[in-house]
Amino acid sequence: MSYIGKPKISHPKATKNSIGLTKRDYEGVVSTLCAGCGHDSVTAAIIQAVFELDIKPHTLGKMSGIGCSSKTPAYFVSQSHGFNSVHGRMPSVTTGANAANRDLTYIGVSGDGDSLSIGMGQFAHVIRRNLNMTYIIENNGVYGLTKGQYSASADIGSKAKKGPANQQKPIDPVSMGIALGATFVARGFSGDKEQLVPLIKSAIRHKGFGLLDIISPCVTFNDNKESTKSYSHVRKFYHQVIDTDFVPPAQEIKAKYKKGEAMPIYLHDGSKIVFRRVDEQYDPTDRAGAYAYLRESIKKQEVTTGLLYIDKECDDMHEIAQTSDCPLSKIPYDELAPGSEELANIMNRFR
Amino acid sequence: MKSLSRVNDLVIKIATVNGTGSASANGLLMKSIFRMGIPVVGKNYFPSNIQGLPTWYEIRVTGDGYQSASNQIDIIVAMNAQTYQKDLSTVEPGGWLIYDSTWPRSKLLDREDITVIGIPFSKLCNEKFDGVRSRILMKNIAYVGTLVALLKIDLNIIKELLNETFATKKHLAASNLEAIMLGYDFVVNNFSYPLPLTVKALNKTKNHVIIDGNTAAGLGCVYAGATVGAWYPITPSTSLMDAFQAFCQQHRQCKKTQKNNFCIIQAEDELAAIGMVLGASWNGARAFTPTSGPGISLMSEFIGFAYYSELPAVIFDIQRTGPSTGMPTRTQQCDLMICAFASHGDTKHPLLFPTNPEECFYMTLTAFDLADELQTPIFVMSDLDIGMNDWVCPDLQWDKNYQPKRGKLLNAKQLDAMDKFYRYLDVDGDGITYRTLPGEHAKGSFFTRGSGHNKFGGYTEDSQEYQDVVDRLLVKWETARKMMPKPIISYSKSNTKAILSYGSSHGACEEALDQLQHQGKNYNYCCIKSFPFAEAIKEFINKHEIIFLVEQNRDAQLRSLLVLDLEVNPAKIKSVLHYNGNPIYANFISEEIIKNEKSDVV
Which residue from A8, B301, B571, B586 puts its CA 20 to 30 A from B404's CA? Predict the structure, then answer.
């Protein structure tokens, strides 16, 4: 980690986004994670994404649980509202926050321990509710803060820096997300920012639950050559099944299209996700197909990446609950209390 | 044999099988007496089961208007063969037992000192009604008719209630009345009636309602402006959220858009329920969760988080019999300690002790105001007896000038005028710091965390910075002490002895005070309404030689809490403890006190 504070001044010629902020305005305090930690790359990608989406910092809720990954909300967008909750419980806090104010943007940052072990229940249920949020799992296969125990995402035979190889079956959050009915499921790699930024932007703009599993190697405890969550292993078995570009409503950006057919999907706010099939047969709107493809690729030890599944029509929690369009926390009190006459009427029903 | 002879002072206990519609029959019976202007008390003794197990409903007719159970059963309606023998033994000498005489009854199952009245309910209903289900339901309605005749209940009121209940299903009103008349006519044709034990119209229930505490608290949540309710089903708290939902559907839908000005989330467990409440509170909604003891155990980690990160929350603990799963459908006041100190580390939380459904309503409003003002979780310590039983209470009144007290909450304009905002900086010495809501203003940003933080809201592992914040929380605790509802204290001719209680023990204490006074024994009385305790309670305890502290748990939890919080002398506090799961009653208290006094004579 660095011990020098960040200077507050930014370059006068730094690019500004449409609300007049530079990327520096979206930074947080200096990271206290290990030098080279994959999570810091994810943090940088988040900063890039929210800067490009022109999100007003104070309308962003940064939600997290406990662990190395959950520390990162302090490292991006200082001027937003962070909520570093308890271990494995970020989904419930975000659910309540969103229930109270549906107008804010919620980015949850979790880890493989936080989501797949202690927080598995809440992870599953926030998917069921299709809560409108971006849910990032910074997945490195180990518990960093407690010094290197295997997490539930560690592959069989994978070996961390010390101790015997892992022998338990891994839980794959992407397969789980697709199986549980998540409406946006993607996987990225902390080492590929070019792919990551559009994925984060798409997840944020997706109306509903945007799950983003990011393989983010732990340089201290799990970056050795016997580990399947190391930089070198992921780079070697990295397979981008689909290339994704995010196009905001106003501007059509020129994407670096790869070979294959383009497939635009328009989101509810008018923005567009442009898919480029790297794998000719892949259809990101076919849940069963996506699931089958994943199971096959796991057999081949591939790390499948890209926006793997999207269903943009599914109702989110508020639509299911028929909640008022006005955030509940902003409804004036006078509209909430039925008044004294009505109480007298209610009393008459109890005689 | 001398039969009991009283007017407007009797207890009817009805033994049935759960799932047979007896609840509506019992409700009809109780409401009819209430509509005659006579105060009543209803206690439901039900199993943790859906259908087929024994259940009892006790209606106490109390012209004096007492608000507690009585342990003396004058009339038992023994509709359940399974419990007949036990039910027979519970009747007071000189009382009555009513049973279904369709089938022969063993001679052994008799008592010389009571009157047994056999009515062939099953036979009468089988002849009159078709269908198994209908016959079972009507059999239970028929015993209402029997009691109407025996006790001189106004039949017109019964008819009126049936017409109201079945306003849209007129044929059901007619068939129910037929069943009632079967039970009624059989008495008229075969027995001398009424009994020497009767009801007689009074004028004591005007502007009163029959309501349970969970319904009143659910209504309180609506009036407090709560918009987010998160919960996990658990007996005996479930009906609180049911009530909130029902009231919201009627009173919280936008007239224009038909959309809901509320959001109720059934969580995956209690951990998630409290997490949702905290997320919603953080974002400025008034949010709450109803639960019971096991739920508090599960929520504890988050409750500590809320204490330290200073988030408002309203938690209803509808206490039930512990430990562990305990007896989920029985009552106790057994969660004081866990709620007062829920979570690891130095944590403590304000508690409110409603004594009846009426106070459940008003204290719900108080709870939301205090949660916002103190920025901390507030517990409403109800219990199964208050929450699920029917109580006669004065009409709930609404002060139309009420505005929610949101506490030190900065709006955009105030933030705009500020130089810099720090979340945990105490600017005026009351231990309560200013708070902002996400999205309000760029200057209002801060980081909420349960890890060590300094007064500016930054992460810290610095000893002094850490201690500054936890010490300031103690200042806030003392501010809370001044803001909590005050105890109700009443003085008698005694200067040395007093009774102290709280919550659902209060009703029985009031009656016990009268019983003792009739025996020439005077006690002062203090009903505690909240924790942290008011200084007045310390003075009250100190000025007496002996205090009888009445509560419904085994370990005298309030006594421990008083000693911890007020440092009063434990030697002078004698405990009167009732913890078998049934509601406490006055005779128990007065007898225990008298027994204790005798043993103290030197």
Answer: B301
* Helix runs in B191-286, H state only: 213-224, 238-251, 270-282
Residues B101 and B105: their CA atoms lie apart, in Å, by 7
CATH H-level superfamily of B6-205: Pyruvate-ferredoxin oxidoreductase, PFOR, domain III (3.40.920.10)
Residue A253 has pLDDT above 50, yes or no: no
Q: Which residues of B touch A101 (CB under 8 A)?
A: 283-285, 437-439
pTM (2 d.p.) = 0.96
List chain B residues with CB under 8 Å of A325.
257, 259
Size of interface A-B (CB pairs under 8 A): 221
Please tell me the number of Cα atoms within 13 Å of B524 on its side-chain side.
Answer: 21
Count CB-CB contacts under 10 A for residue B145: 30
Per-chain mean pLDDT for chain B: 96
Residue B308 forms contact with A (CB below 8 Å): no
Does A6 score more than 80 pLDDT? no
Cis before residue B323, ω within 30 degrees of 0? Answer: yes
Residue B416 contacts A, CB cutoff 8 Å = no
Does residue A261 carry a pLDDT above 90? no
The verdict on B394 touching A (C-beta cutoff 8 Å) is: no
pLDDT in tens, B126-169: 999 999 989 999 999 999 999 999 999 999 999 999 999 999 99
What are the start-end ranges of the H helices in A206-247?
Answer: 231-237
**B211-394: CATH, from 3.30.1360.170, 2.60.40.10, 3.30.420.10, 3.40.50.970:** 3.40.50.970
